[in-house]
């Protein structure tokens, strides 16, 4: 899956407005500063997810995709919230694999094994197979959209997805390497969606929208890693480049970014010919106190305002439209 040469660009018809999808990592609650644990299975924050629909999505006709993990799929109260939204046509439900809380529990829980693609292929398949069936059982619909927890794709993940009937992956983070933490390297990937074939099936990759802004953005793939070296950080080169308007790497998420950042990234990408953008965040951020990004009620209001502001800007200023993941796949076909 990580071989760039095997990919075929996925394009919308000429003249089609740019499209924005929303993919939400829908998961259990845990302390982001502590080690992974199989005991973290609480899903109380799922009850907060309809708030975004009531405040933002319904009025704009946005149908997000909740990629859910094993604790969410197997907790009746949590899965019922999302299943009701799905049945009402207000969302889609996909798959989000956190291996440390997904059976079978055969591996040691550690950072290396938190990336699903690092597991033995048979165990990766067994975990995804169990989760896929759990989602189908709890929602009444088999999922076709997948996003790896911690973006942890591996060399066998595409074959596993194809064998289990998936049609869309949303795990690639362009211009980003997780190798320092034993994760995958997406440095050679860009923001554009693409088709890839495996096991006789054609799948769509919908990357996490991550791109460069600034006057040197065209050389961002080569320059940004140099800025991030120990020497570059010691000299504070990333901050200097950002303040000078030379180079920024931004991700389309309200987590850790302000509205102006997201508008600038969306504007730059659309102007540079990007047809498809993907906004992402974690479900616990909709309940104060569960992620570093939303600690109190004031943070939550800013968080929601950031999402709404980006969507309105994308529609009204950039002339964009909104699609669910499966709608996008059909449009690209």
Topology summary:
Elements: E1 8-9, E2 19-26, H1 50-60, E3 65-68, H2 70-74, H3 76-87, E4 92-97, H4 121-139, E5 145-148, H5 157-163, E6 168-169, E7 194-198, E8 201-205, E9 210-213, H6 220-227, H7 230-234, H8 237-243, E10 248-251, H9 259-271, E11 276-282, H10 297-316, E12 321-322, H11 325-332
Parallel strand pairs: 2-3, 2-11, 2-12, 3-4, 4-5, 5-6, 6-8
Antiparallel strand pairs: 1-7, 7-8, 9-10
Helix pairs in contact: 1-10, 9-10
Description:
By secondary structure, the chain is of the alpha/beta class. The chain contains eleven helices and twelve strands. The protein has helices at residues 50-60, 70-74, 76-87, 121-139, 157-163, 220-227, 230-234, 237-243, 259-271, 297-316, 325-332; strands at 8-9, 19-26, 65-68, 92-97, 145-148, 168-169, 194-198, 201-205, 210-213, 248-251, 276-282, 321-322. The strands form two sheets. Strands 1, 2, 3, 4, 5, 6, 7, 8, 11 and 12 form a ten-stranded mixed beta sheet that branches. It is globular and about 50 Å long.
Quick tags:
333 residues, alpha/beta, ten-stranded mixed beta sheet, 11 helices, 16% strand, globular
Q: Can you describe this structure in just a few lines?
A:
The protein is an alpha/beta fold and 333 residues long. It has 11 helices and 12 strands.
| Proportion of helical residues | 25-40%
Low-pLDDT ranges: none
% residues in beta strands:
15-25%
Enumerate how many helices there are, as a single number.
11
Overall average residue pLDDT: 96
| Secondary structure: number of strands | 12
Can you summarize the main beta sheet? 10 strands, mixed
Q: Could you state the order of secondary-structure elements as H and E?
A: EEHEHHEHEHEEEEHHHEHEHEH
Radius of gyration, rounded?
A: 19 Å
Tell me the span between the first and last alpha carbons. 20 Å
> What's the shape?
globular
The helix-and-strand class reads alpha/beta
């Amino acid at each position: 899956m990580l071989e760039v040469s095997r990919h075929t660009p996925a394009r919308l018809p000429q003249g089609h407005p740019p499209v924005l999808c929303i993919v939400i990592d829908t998961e259990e609650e845990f302390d982001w500063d502590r080690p992974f644990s199989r005991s973290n299975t609480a899903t109380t924050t799922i009850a907060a997810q309809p708030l975004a629909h009531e405040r933002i999505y319904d009025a704009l006709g946005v149908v997000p995709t909740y990629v859910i993990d094993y604790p969410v799929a197997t907790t009746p109260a949590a899965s019922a919230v999302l299943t009701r939204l799905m049945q009402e046509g207000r969302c889609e439900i996909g798959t989000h694999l956190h291996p440390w809380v997904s059976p079978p529990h055969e591996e040691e829980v550690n950072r290396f094994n938190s990336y699903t693609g690092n597991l033995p292929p048979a165990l990766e398949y067994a975990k995804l197979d169990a989760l896929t069936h759990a989602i189908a059982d709890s929602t009444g619909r088999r999922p076709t959209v997948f996003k790896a927890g911690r973006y942890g794709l591996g060399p066998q993940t595409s074959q596993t997805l194809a064998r289990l009937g998936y049609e869309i992956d949303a795990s690639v983070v362009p211009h980003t390497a997780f190798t320092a933490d034993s994760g995958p390297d997406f440095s050679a990937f860009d923001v554009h969606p693409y088709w890839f074939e495996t096991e006789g099936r054609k799948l769509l990759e919908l990357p996490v929208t991550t791109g460069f802004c600034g006057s040197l953005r065209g050389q961002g793939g080569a320059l940004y890693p140099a800025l991030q070296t120990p020497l570059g950080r010691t000299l504070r080169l990333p901050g200097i480049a950002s303040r000078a308007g030379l180079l920024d790497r931004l991700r389309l998420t309200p987590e850790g970014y302000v509205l102006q950042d997201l508008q600038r990234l969306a504007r730059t990408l659309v102007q540079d010919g990007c047809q498809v953008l993907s906004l992402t965040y974690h479900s616990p951020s909709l309940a104060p106190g569960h992620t570093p990004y939303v600690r109190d009620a004031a943070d939550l209001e800013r968080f929601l305002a950031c999402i709404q502001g980006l969507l309105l800007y994308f529609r009204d200023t950039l002339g964009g439209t909104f699609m669910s993941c499966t709608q996008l796949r059909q449009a690209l076909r």
